[in-house]
Amino acid sequence: MNLIHKLNQKLDKMFNGAVHAREENGCVVLTGSLDSWEDIVKAGYLAVNKKRYYGVINDIEYTKEPIPGIRLPDFEDSVYDDTHCDIAIIGAGIIGCSIARELARYKLKILLIDKEHDVGMHASSRNDGEIHPGIDLIKGQVKQKFNIKGNEMYDRVSKELDFKFYKPGQYLCFDDKRLKFISSIARLYWRFMKIPTIYLNKNQLKERIDGISEKMEYAVFFPTAGVVSPYEVTIAYAENACDNGVRIALDTAVTNMEVSQNNIISLKTNRGTIYPKLVINAAGAYADKIAGMAQDRFYTIHARKGTNAIFDKKTVKDKRYIVSTYGMSKVKTVHSKGGGIITTADDNMLIGPDAYETFDREDFSTDGKNIDQILQKHRRTLPNLKKSDIIAYYSGIRAATYEEDFVITEGKRTKNIIHVAGIQSPGLTAAPAIAEYVSRMAYKMLSKSILVELNNDFNPIRKAIPDLSKLNEEERDRLIKMNPDYGVIVCRCEEISLGQIKDALTRSVPCDTLDGVKRRVRAGMGRCQGGFCGPLVLKTIAQVKKMDYDQVAKKDDQSRILFGKTKKHDTKV
Amino acid sequence: MIRVGFCSERPKNMIPKSENTYDVTIIGGGPAGLSAALSSAKNNAKTLLIEREAKLGGILKQCIHDGFGLIMFKQKLTGPEYAQYYINMLEKTDVEVTCSTFVTEMKRKEDGTFHLVLVTCDGIRHICSKTIVLATGCRERSAKQIFIHGTRPAGILTAGTAQYYTNILGQMPAKKCVILGSGDIGLIMARRLTLEGAVVEGVYEAKKDLGGLLRNYSQCLMDFNIPLHTQTTCTRVFGEKRLSAVEVCAVDDDMNPLEGSERIIECDSLILSVGLIPENELAEKLGIVTDKETNGPAADHCHQTMVDGVFVCGNAFHVNDLVDYVSLGAKTAGKCAALYSKKIRKLIPILHDGYFAYCVPQFIDMSANEKKVDIYFRSRKKEDKIQVTLSAGDEVIISKKYVQIRPSEMELLQIDIGEIEKINNWKNGVSIKMEKVE
Questions:
Q1: CA B36 to CA B30: how far, in whole Å?
Q2: What is the pTM of this model?
Q3: Would the CB atoms of B121 and A561 count as touching at under 8 Å?
Q4: Residue B350 sits in which domain range?
Q5: Which of A328, B111, B168, B297 is the most buried (most CB within 10 A)?
Q6: A132 given a catalytic annotation
Q7: Residues 153-172 of chain B whose Cβ lies under 8 A from any Cβ of chain A
Q8: Is the pLDDT of residue A573 over 50?
């Protein structure tokens, strides 16, 4: 009580009595109203006390403008009505998909649910793809533990699931010799954390990174840093899960739950009522809302947005790297890695991301000033970054809790739920480890009531769609002779063939959109951004899926590309 | 014309038994490639024309409006007709044509010839060629390249893509649209979509002047009462699934948005006609030198780039505004490639001042057998009553008066090498200047 009293004193002082704190079910609950989103977030942080409480429930009302709600599918049907399953996983991002794949090792009926039309549509395809060494994590954090384990697992997982994984290492550059004292202490800490480091002097650094700023005096190199394509990993996990019997329910939003005697009975969705024995909450930015439906809310997600920019492949020389400069961000870097420059798994240069709070959990819009800011920031490291070489940019939302740590636990009151929430950076790195851990947790929970057997047919191997442009000539020739469509280039910028596009449309995770094809085989991701291949991909989708041209969409049914045949057009708009 | 190497369009027995060695290999079967191939064959070179798509014709295939061929054929043709005229002429030659074929690699061998790796649906093929003619055309600048911000909905597309949907697929890409950029394809699409019953709210151009030809402004916008808003640009887009609106904003002379002038326009499509970029990514690996102003390779008046044996023509060289000019230039490129023999070129530069947006060719090869020099240029700004002078030192080679010159209209200056040789100081190059005349 004393703690709450002290907190209320602080809150009163800061917000003139507009915010009040109380303790409820082991959580700190904040109520009141404020007209500044920053203040609401600030109050949330103020209430954190990890030792005494499960978490902060921030119910302070934002009065300045309405907060856009969750974007839901615009239709209802009964495709999944009365589905009984052992496990329902809510959210098909990297976390949901990797858990689904690990759970497929057991003989269980698993339903993987997502409100979007494809897997990995939010944070999982909107990050920079770094497999973090864990430089800025602190011992004792949940995310630190899973990051170390996950990082080590990527070698094996990338082989099993056949996705690109490179380990170029990360360079943390220092532009001030006086920082040497700090960095040598830091290196001792990293050694204690079992993160290997190598010291590089100015010349060594210059040798390794073309065009590095002359101001950089030295660097610490982390050889365990890697890079993947985040959506490739998510899709790979999802495909392997589905190959092994997991059912996937896309365009399916959980809108309510029936909870009785601390047990979730059913999930109400726009596509029918689903009856799971166990629910895994991997709902990303909406995990706290799902927890609320399950009557088990003990944390709050606040959206932290970031923007990345991608450069033309021309800018990448033969060497891959991840590079950033210490202390270059004037904004506080506590809650973000401060971004970096990364050679992506698909050979582009990427810069970003920045970090700022937003009240809209699905605000994926971009703004010119963010691009200019990240460009300016990273020019300190690589002065030759040219704005005119940028070919694409995008924003993502980090699902942060006020505790700034992962929430990976059984429900506090509701018995048949596992929360896998607050998974922001380094969630991608941690995912393989989280998936193993959560699947074992789920196995143990279910074993209390049913007999869970191992799935002897489980096949951990998934074969990727061949990337012909990267194959050697004999192999490429052989594949073309087997399937001539592999010899018809559709996307000229990325050299993607018709055969690869058709492959993308016929895998175990359904795909029937331009963006879906783009994220699977990169058609449209090059410098012309789909100007040439867009219509050809659309034609192929229509042909393979037996759709009319005007039914083909960019990302889901609400984003169709065409309006129907010419000559028949209704002139009244 | 012999069709080779493509599965669906040729009988199997027509694969040439030869060792796949050519005098001239032309990459790209659009208007430039067609003309270059024809001219190369007419000069008795063993010629191969490589096309990425299943059919020849390039972008002409989707340009169903007329106005092509006024110079070359003295008649108004549609794009497909213009292409067909060339295909028909090519049929009478023994040019080998391979469609649905993609060049993945070009290497210069020690003996100076080129080795190309091709991907076809029959597998990987290798060919050797004494010379290469780049006729790879250009691509449209994308929404991201002009930094359009906001959401990422469906309904933002380039004018060329919109043209493909409308003319090739017979599908409407828009019901109510805003066109950003007043390039020719944007103007043409304004008319095209209006004719198909769509509403074109307006054409917005960030620059002071029209981006396309005056003729297109009058025939495509004025005739259909479509407003052109110059010094106005699109600053933001809205709508998460399909585009729902765009924000337009007036800009100052330096293209900075003027605060307070923002206006929201509801529409389902934003069509972009914001510039074309020559496509030379493939050739960059050969070490060609790129001109920052044209974004294409620097070349001499024979269309030979700074790499011996590599020629360039059409929009891959610089973005032309008439297909007839493309054909004319490509004809020279094809001929010079066919007659190519390795020797040291006597190159002199054509220098120009800041009043020009660009000027091509960048060099004149004084040792060339080709004596005709076609100099094309664009001015940076719209100017009235201008005299353009080509000179070396103090000596004038040629001078021509123009009532008006505009950035969007390419101008031509023709000279003969003999006229340059007549004067004394040509060895350091010639320079082109623009002056006001009364």
A1: 10
A2: 0.95
A3: no
A4: 343-438
A5: B297
A6: yes
A7: 153-155, 157-158, 160-161, 164-166, 168-172
A8: no
